[in-house]
Design goal:
Shape: elongated
Helix content: 40-55%
Strand content: 5-15%
Length: 619
């Protein structure tokens, strides 16, 4: 018989309160350690993805300001300028029409791939360490972040094993197209919000589905109706994710939307009962999401298409940017088993968007047949075939030869918004589609007890090995003049004024834009590398027409010949300086044919003033 004192009726609640208080007062480090233990597998996946991304971009480190991606330095120069301009939002100096390029007309930031959300988010890094550091962080971070986001989606939404989810996430984040686009296309590699959008769409569908119903006491089936609260929260979350993605990369959002549309239609065909039950609530939820998103995006989208310096059409030729059919079963030059000879099958090193290789295509096809989950697999296969076919463009190209066979893209080419996306980039959507098929097959194999448990993961690993990426080539970049880095430009240009570098920046040679980037976009430049309307018709074009003085100086820089300068050229030089709103013209000794340029400028604007390592003319 126990000798313990009897416990009062209210002792148990008091003990519970004391225990809860002790838990809440546990050291923060202990709670953090417990959280790490719970999520150690996910953290390990994140670490692996981060290490792989760092290794692929290690050529930019440890000094991003002195290194540059060798395969596409022009676009890196552009994106670093974008990041410098975006960062000024933290200083209260930001507008959708920036005056820091193409003076005096400016540049419409919404009409360009300016990754505004990323630029603002990383503004403290840019302001403290410079745009090249931010660029390097984003180049690596987009790869790792996209892989991790897909890994979490696969594991938590499809409920697959972590190993299978990691394989799928790795393909989504480090597939040939993603690695290729990392050559300076930050707006295309920032895809870590896409899995969030997919998850919210799935959540919206589940909330809209009332289920088949439950029988009542009389045996009649009674529907329960959609979960309206969950429906609204999912729609609101979807609106937020879509709005954020617009300010990161609209093209990625467009491709994701087309893919999800095809998958939704395919899934509805495969499961008509679900379509009948969920369609009203699902359509209503999408309408709410669209309405909420338009509250945020209405003005920016109007500004993009109809605002100053906006463009309403695409500027790239679909026929030129079409995927070669043979590139699908070819390996990327940026893969361990790839060859430089295959580069002829695309337009450049940033567009190896297909290049999955025949081993992966073959294994993916077998996985689609064996994976189970027939409705999801059917939707994936349908979307893969549609998006792959659209990537071929308006006319099928095979081995570099145009076949005169019309491609499915011809059916949608010319439609509003569609021509803003390059056909070959439709192929980027195949990475998550193929990854889903592999994930389902590997997970089913791991749950089985037969030979498939070893055979399927082995086959998938063998298929992925040839496309394993190699580090991106990098090179040294010329140093920015001390005239800029030392802040000496302020002696002849007021903050926000216009500096005219000689020669002026162009889309093919945007190097003077590095000056503005290094100065934190503290001054504007004439002309430059951007998308804007060209001529009276307002057709979208890269860059703008040159003023006569700019064309004259560009010719001197190209040929080295010193032209004859008369009164008309001097008057034109004054008119052009007035048109640009220029405060100062600057020439450095490392400019091409610098002596001829200096002599020409002296005849146009008179004797120069030496400031640090630059010759300057106040105009």
């Amino acid at each position: 018989m126990s000798s313990a004192a009897p416990t009062a009726p209210d002792a148990a609640p008091e003990q519970a309160f004391r225990l809860a208080d002790q838990v809440n007062r546990r050291p923060r480090a202990t709670r953090l350690l417990a959280a790490v233990r719970r999520h150690r597998a996910d953290l390990l996946a994140a670490l692996i993805f981060a290490v792989l991304a760092g290794w692929l971009t290690h050529g930019l480190w440890p000094d991003p300001g002195a290194r540059i991606l060798a395969l596409n330095p022009e676009d890196q120069t552009l994106y670093e300028w974008f990041l410098a301009v975006d960062a000024r939002a933290l200083l209260g100096d930001f507008d959708l029409l920036t005056d820091r390029l193409n003076a005096p007309d400016g540049v419409n930031l919404m009409a360009n791939t300016t990754v505004i959300a990323l630029g603002v988010l990383f503004a403290p890094v840019t302001l403290l360490l410079g745009a090249p550091v931010t660029f390097a962080l984003l180049a690596a971070g987009n790869l790792a972040g996209t892989a991790l986001a897909w890994y979490l989606l696969f594991h938590r939404t499809l409920r697959v094993r972590r190993v299978a989810a990691a394989l799928g996430g790795g393909l989504c984040g480090f597939g040939p197209g993603m690695v290729s686009q990392t050559n300076s296309h930050l707006h295309m590699t920032a895809q870590w919000l896409v899995p969030v959008i997919v998850w919210l769409v799935v959540r919206l569908l589940r909330a809209a589905d009332p289920g088949p119903g439950t029988p009542d006491q009389a045996g009649n089936t009674r529907a329960t109706g959609p979960d309206r609260r969950r429906l609204f929260t999912s729609a609101a979350g979807l609106a937020g994710a879509i709005s954020a993605q617009v300010f990161i990369g609209e093209e990625v959002l467009f491709l994701a939307a087309i893919t999800l549309l095809v998958m939704a239609i395919s899934y509805a065909v495969a499961d008509r009962d679900l379509a009948r039950r969920a369609l009203p609530g699902f359509a209503g939820g999408l309408a709410v999401a669209a309405g909420l998103a338009l509250l945020v995006l209405g003005y920016p989208l109007w500004f993009q298409f109809a605002g100053p310096q906006g463009v309403a059409d695409g500027m790239f030729t679909p026929a030129y940017f079409s995927a070669d059919l043979s590139s699908w079963w070819t390996l990327s030059p940026l893969s361990v088993a790839g060859s430089d000879e295959s580069a002829r099958l695309t337009t450049g090193p940033a567009e190896y968007n297909t290049f999955l290789g025949w081993p992966l295509l073959l294994v993916a096809a077998v996985c689609a047949i064996w994976a189970g989950r027939r409705r999801l697999v059917f939707a994936c296969v349908a979307a893969g075939l549609v998006m792959g076919a659209l990537s071929l463009g308006p006319e099928v190209v095979l081995g570099g030869t145009r076949t005169a066979i019309p491609g499915p893209y011809a059916l949608i080419g010319g439609l509003p918004v569609v021509d803003g996306a390059l056909p070959m980039r439709f192929a980027l959507t195949l990475l998550p589609i193929v990854a889903t098929l592999l994930v389902l097959a590997v997970d089913r194999a791991l749950r089985s007890s037969g030979r498939a448990r070893r055979l399927v993961p082995l086959a998938v690993g063998v298929a992925l090995l040839p496309i394993f990426p190699t580090p991106l080539p990098t090179a040294g970049r010329p140093a920015v003049p001390e005239f800029i880095t030392g802040g000496h430009w302020r002696q002849c240009v007021p903050p926000g004024g216009v500096l005219v570098p000689v020669p002026l920046p162009t889309p093919k040679e945007p190097w003077p834009m590095r000056w503005a980037t290094a100065a934190g976009a503290g001054f504007g430049l004439p002309e430059g590398f951007f998308i804007g309307p060209y001529g009276r018709g307002g057709t979208a074009a890269m860059g703008t027409f040159k003023q006569p003085t700019s064309a004259l100086l560009a010719d001197v820089a190209r040929r080295g010949d010193q032209p004859a300068i008369g009164d008309e050229q001097r008057r034109q030089a004054v008119r052009d300086a007035d048109f640009w709103g220029a405060s100062c013209v600057a020439l450095t000794d490392d400019a091409p044919h610098a002596e001829s340029l200096r002599a020409t400028l002296e005849q146009l604007y008179g004797p120069p003033t030496r400031i640090a390592d630059a010759w300057t003319w106040r105009v």
